[in-house]
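Protocol step 4 of 6: structure prediction from sequence.
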Amino acid sequence: MEYRLSDSDIERLLEEDVPYGDLTTMLLGIGSVRGAIGFTSRERTVVCCTEEASRLLEHCGASVTHCLPSGTAAEAGTSLLTAAGTAGSLHAGWKAALNLLEYASGIATRTRLIVDRARSARPGIAVVTTRKSFPGTKKVSIKAVMAGGALPHRLGLSESVLVFRQHTAFLGSLTAFLESIPSLKDRLPEHRIIVEADTAEEALMIAASGADVVQVDRMPPAELGTLVPEIRRRAPGVRISAAGGINAENAADHAATGVDILVLSSVYFGKPADIAASIHP
């Protein structure tokens, strides 16, 4: 089933922009005049949140006449969404819909670029994104990431086990924690145990401990390329993820090291997609 933002999310976006109606449209007396609105890509864009923008416009009283599905790669000049209605309904939904489309499509476009570059070096590699989305934008960010071809690394603290040095510091040492992995796996047989390593030595210790995934943080691709075969030699069943500083410029280099997973945050930060909006009678 397609991931959708809730009705309350749509209403919140409108509440932010039109809390007490549209003063300009009211003063000009044009609210009841019929018209149309259209959103068009100005550059190659992986589209996201057209469905939510459509619902937003419909909530304002407009009728959607065309909607390109999220995840579509649209060339410059492509019509993404059109709707008809009164000037009042179109102006009420215009900017909120445009902001949603531009920010979500920007994330989706950056994600697709990284996925494509990573898989050109290692077909089938998993690309996943962290919890570092801008506060308050998580639902839109997750939909955009998935529209771009990636998946969330973790949806939150409640559904996954990822151990950092900030955890093991409270246990005395990484070594002390690694000794507890067999009992952890007995307690959580349906979950993978992921442990982050800051050095090659730590990565090899984690791999030998029975952890399911070794997450190597901020290791240059040249060093990672040497480490990955050694991990596979010592612990053939362990999965290896690379995290920290991965972006469109270096994703292929990291993927080429032979890791199974790329973990990144960079897709959340960058310019919005460039989408034109037109409103006319």
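Step 5 (inspection) to follow. The chain is about 40% helix and 20% strand.
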